[in-house]
Structures are given as structure tokens and as C-alpha cells.
Amino acid sequence: MSSSKRHGPLRRWIALASILLMLAAPAVRAEIVLVTAMDSAIEALSRDEAEQLYLGRRATLSARGALILLDLPSGPVRDQFYRLLTGKNPSQIRAYWSRMVFTGRALPPTESANVSDAHRILLENPNAIAYLPATYAEDPSLRVLLRLE
Amino acid sequence: MKYRLATLAAIIAAHAAPVSAATDAITFSGFGTLGAVLTHSDDLQFRRVGVEAPGTQSVDFAPDTVLGVQTNFRLGDSAEAVLQVLSRETPKNTYTPRASLAFLSYSLSPESTLRAGRLRLPTFMLSDSMLISYAHPWVRPPVEVYGLSPFSDLDGIDFFYRRRIKDVDVELHPYLGRSQLDIVQTGHSSLSHLRGLNIGLSSGALTLHAGYARARLDMRWGDPFTSRLLDALQSAPGGEHIIAKMQGSDAATSFTSAGFQWDGERWLLIGEYAARRAAAFANSAYGWHLTVGRHIGPFTPYLKLARTIQTSPIISDQLSAGQPALQRFNASRNGAQRSFGAGLRWDLRHDAAFKMEFARTHTDNDSWGAFFPVHHLTRVSDRTINTLSVSIDVVF
């Protein structure tokens, strides 16, 4: 009886915490991280640089040579990424990139087959940057450069 | 010497080394539009640019149909070669493919790129992407503005400088070169000593554009009507003064434009003003367009208003007074008109869009606007003409 009294507040806390976690879960899933390999020379990436890179307004980061910018195939993660970073919806991004490509201004990021393919390319190329679901933030082989939420 | 060459080769190889299988050295892409224009008038034809071969069918596929294929060759870390071959109806009434882009580009720094070769001439806000219909909400960018500059190639060099200041991306785009253009039948025109500067500002959904260019215009007409007129003028007293206004070399020409685009989550707003001034061979005129659209899922319905106004004709009113042939020449080279349009873009899939647009156009009383008579004696000026355009655009 006394034990149940002692555990009462704890249970309430656990219940409250699980509700909060459940509420927070969709937000966690919607969060996206920009990552590079842990052994990459790229140590920082500002939001401005990320936006410029993924809009083809710059091709490289300063004086670090060529960069491999990775894209995911069409789908919710990609749509969410561009919405968070550039504020553009999928149709707007495609229209925007068609103008960039066919006026010869820039080439779009390299499309990987899926999330695990992007992960593989990152590990093989220290000069690659990709965006991945936030669950990859815990991956010890990756370095988080920027969080988008 | 050999040693030096070997060192150079090693340096180049070392530079090229980081390029892995993840980024292809060669990239293929393309775009296409299948478009049809129905002019609701048996005796008139729509023409997109004043120099194209007019069609003869009431449903015309020529103005908007286009296919372009592009190859990008990566040459090391900071250089690239681009070749784009394009097929659409030419003023000579063929679909012979031609190079619309063929240039080498070099990134001097992350912010700046130098390009040389055949480029797109960025006269007005959307000139360099005029044929990439997928990039735009309309079936075609409004002829009231884009008809003012039929030139599309830039053979020369251009330079991009981009820089982010606070949250605004600033783009400076100076260019230099020349441009050539075939005109119906045996006509030919060119811009030489062409130099221009575009300034672009982008922040979030808003893009602003300002541009200015000047050049020397050469013109040689080749259609039978104008050839007969020129022959007749040659033997007429004082005719050479009129001929000197119609065709020749080195007429000072300038193009000015300013525009904006707001492409937000819900609303789409696009507006632009553009002017062409020519000392001879082409009229001086200005135009504007304004579009309001609304994004509703994959649909973007829009309304469009546009206007072209002539400021001075090719042959002055004094000289052409009482001369129907001269007035006809002036009117046929005058795009002055007003139009109201309602259209829809429907993003069918991630790589295709369907569009349709209804437009009601009124040509000015001394102008053929964007139309051409099927029969020689048909009146084109001061008429109200309905057109319906549909297109499917793809990118691959």
C-alpha cells in the first residue's frame, strides 16, 4: 500500500512523459539532418550555405574543392527537406531546377537510390553531403552538420 | 619539358581523383513540350515570335512544340562543358535540330562562374528559359513582352557572381557577344557588340529582376512582300531614305526590363515591364504582363493581363502617310496588342505538367500583334481574336 503510494507520482510522470513522447514523435520523424562522413573534412555547414547549395546558387564550399551533394528520390523525406530548407513545395522545386539545368546554370544534386544508398555513398566519399531522417543523427559513422525542423 | 607535362598531368589527375562513381562525369537530361494553339478565326494565325514561319492550319503545333536534349560533361573539379541540342519549328519552316547551348564553364570561386561559347541570351527576366515551358506556369511566357526580343542565342561570354547578403541571394550576370537569327524565307538579322547586365535578387518566395542590354542591329528582310516593296522603293524618288529605315546595318538598339516573381505556398504573382528601343529596322515598343495564380494541390489556375505599346514605328508616320504598302510593312512588324487570359497548370506527375490557356486579344489599329493573315488581304489590325492553347511539358 505504502509502495503504491510511493510509486504513484512516478507512474504519473511516466504516463505524462509517454504522452509527451507520443506527441513529440511526429516532430522527431519530420526532423531532418544534413550529414557527412565522420572522417570528412567538412566540419560545418551553415543554413545559408545549405540553402545555396541545394538551390544551385553555389557549387562548392569555400576552397574545399568539389562537393558531392546527394538527393533522395521523390518522396516524403525529400519533400519535407526542401520545404524546411527552401520553403518550396515539390512542384516549385522541380520547376526551379528545370530552369537551372536547361539554362546551363547548375546541375541538381546527385540522386541516390534510397536512404541506405545515400548512407553508403557518404561513407565512401568524404566530400559528400546528404540529408537524412533525424534517426541517422545517432549514427557514429556520420557527422551532423545541420538540423532542420 | 616532358617532366613538366608529367607534373601537370599528375596535378590534373590528383585534382580529378576525388570525383567518384557517385557523381557521373557525363549527365544526360532533356525537356519537351507538345503544344497546340487554336486560333478562333479562319483567316488569322497565331505566331509566337514575329519572325517565325506562320502556319496554315487552324490548329497549329508549331509555336510551342519543342524538344531539347542536354549533356553535361564534368571536366575536373571546377570546369564543365554543356551541349544542348534543340528542335522546334524554325523561321525556315523546318525542325532541323540546332545547338542551343554549347559552352565551357569554369568556376573561379564558389560564388563566380565564367562561361564561354553558345549561351542563352538573357534579355528579359525569363528569356533564357523561354522554351523550357515546364519551368513556367503558362503555356508560354507572355508574347506581349517576349515578342520584343526574338533573339535567343548568345555567342560570347557571360559571368555569374552570386552572393548571399543577409537572407537575400544577389546574382550579377553580365554578358557580352553577338546573336544571329533567321527570319522567314531568306531574311536574316543579327545583334553585334551586344553587352548587357542582369541583376537578380532572391529571398524566399520573392525574386526581383532588372536588366539592360545594348547592341548594334543588322537586318535583311526576305519575305516576298517586303522584297517587292524594297524593289519598288529603289526606283522611287526619295525611296532610299525609306529603305535605310527598313533594313541595313548598325542600328543602335537597347533592351530594358524589370520584373518580379512571388511564388509562395498559396499565391503566385508574376509581373514584368520590358522595352525595346531601336534607331532603325525594328520599331520601338514596350510591354508588360501581370499574372495572378493560386496553388491548389497539383493545380495552379491563373489570370493574366498583358499589353504591348508601340512608341515609334519603323517608318515614321510622316513618310508612311497615304502609303498603304508602307503602313502594312509597319503594322506587320508591330506587336502592339492587349490581352486577357485565363489558364491552368496541372502538375500531372513529378516530371510532367499539362497546361491550357484561353486568351482574348485585341490588336492595336496599326498593328498585327501576334497574328498573321492566312490570305494576303485580310485585315489583322484592330481585331479581337480568341485563342486556346494546350500543352504537355515533360522533363527527363
TrEMBL record, chain A:
Protein known as: Phosphate ABC transporter substrate-binding protein
Gene3D superfamilies in alphabetical order: Periplasmic binding protein-like II
UniProtKB/TrEMBL annotation, chain B:
Protein name: Porin domain-containing protein
Lineage, opening ranks: Bacteria, Pseudomonadati, Pseudomonadota, Betaproteobacteria, Rhodocyclales
Domain of life: Bacteria
Signal peptide: 1-21
Keywords: Signal
